[in-house]
Amino acid sequence: MTKRPNAPVQPANLDDIDRALLAALAQDARAPISELARQVGLSAPSTSERLRRLEAQGVISGFTVQIDPRALGYTLQAIVRVKPLPGQLHLVEEVIRRIPEFVECDKVTGDDCFIARLYLHSIEQLDEILSKVTERAETSTAIVKTTPVARRLPPLA
């Protein structure tokens, strides 16, 4: 059974070994079970069982790859705050979903309804992409200079 992304999840009771296993996976999700077992001080079968349990509990929702956008020619990142015009909320959400350069988008409280992250090849591409959104919403854009804190795990303590 697949959980919906925003479905309520019961907090899992994690012990120190679970936390160490999650930290090891955060460093290298492709590490072999034998290496993970060595790092957390368990046998490979016990480590595999813990991984299955953490997945069943919804603590681990998947394994992924990290790609450096610059290696694909995306030299700019932008954060866009989006405030849909009256009656346009769902349409704006659909437009954002269809534009692949929007790599992340959160629906938020406050004056804006969405805060989104884009990867761009050039500054000219920004106008082209935003023109598809500004038909139905007001936007405010900031170019990302650096990322002092990259996406990371929440505290495991």
TL;DR?
The protein has about 160 residues and is an alpha+beta fold. The protein has helices spanning about 15-25, 35-40, 45-55, 90-100, 125-135, and strands spanning about 75-85, 100-105, 115-120, 135-145.
Provide an overview of this structure:
It is a single chain. The chain is built from five helices and four strands. It has 157 residues and is α+β, with helices and mostly antiparallel strands. The protein has two domains: 16-56, Winged helix-like DNA-binding domain superfamily/Winged helix DNA-binding domain (Arc Repressor Mutant, subunit A); 69-143, Alpha-Beta Plaits. The chain has a four-stranded antiparallel beta sheet with strand order 2-3-1-4.
Mean pLDDT: 92
How many angstroms separate the termini? 28 Å
As a percent range, the share of helical residues equals 25-40%
Shape descriptor reads elongated
* Structural class computed from helices and strand pairing: alpha+beta
Which tags fit this structure?
157 residues, alpha+beta, Arc Repressor Mutant, subunit A, Alpha-Beta Plaits
